[in-house]
Amino acid sequence: MVAGDVVEFEIPEAYVVEAGAEQIPLDIVYEDQDIAVIDKPAGMVVHPAPGHYTGTMVHALLGRGGGWSTVGGVSRPGIVHRLDKGTSGLIVVARNDASHRSLSKQLTDRSLSRTYLAIVRGRVKAESGELEGPIGRDPRERKRMAVVAGGRFARTRYQVVERKRDHTLLRCDLDTGRTHQIRVHLAALGHPVAGDGEYGGREEGLGRPMLHAWRLRLRHPRTGAEMTFEAPPPADFQAFWALAS
Question: Which residue, 31, 71, 134, 204, has most beta carbons within 10 Å?
């Protein structure tokens, strides 16, 4: 991790809007006065951004009432890290600024760990490996990320869970949290995430990348207690793997 990195969400363009409360149901895995852990569905945007002015997870958080941290700004109350729109799974949010700062520090020192499940195209040969490559804006397509000289340091560790003829199920652990990191690194390995048309993993019938934030480990900001949360992959992920060749 590069010295000075604190908050691990990255915003593609400068964008500030004050979100309003909306009554949107959320799958709350855990909640107390300091944090909430949410199992985010694929298709939900985490915070307001160009083209997504309503219906985000932030709008849903505000609809739950109570306070949320302000460290991330008025358009991102509570948001410490993020998941891509198409990624399902666990995300932790902060109820207050002290909790936000604690969780951000844990991201920096890697005591807050995030483990993903990914279905990728092709048979990955190695049983495990580390993928390193600086990530930045793709100079040919600014909406995409890529491994580029001068990008921000990024490391992803992976382990094979199961192989099929044309697909592999991987467990991926993040050592850093760059935008689209797992998707970019696996594409650079030659095994893009299935369903990820943006990075070469287009699959007929899939409307999103087969990427799921499965496990989250952290220290509680107030008590220091070690906490581990797991969320099984949603039905579309499980169904695709069951039928994959």
Answer: 71
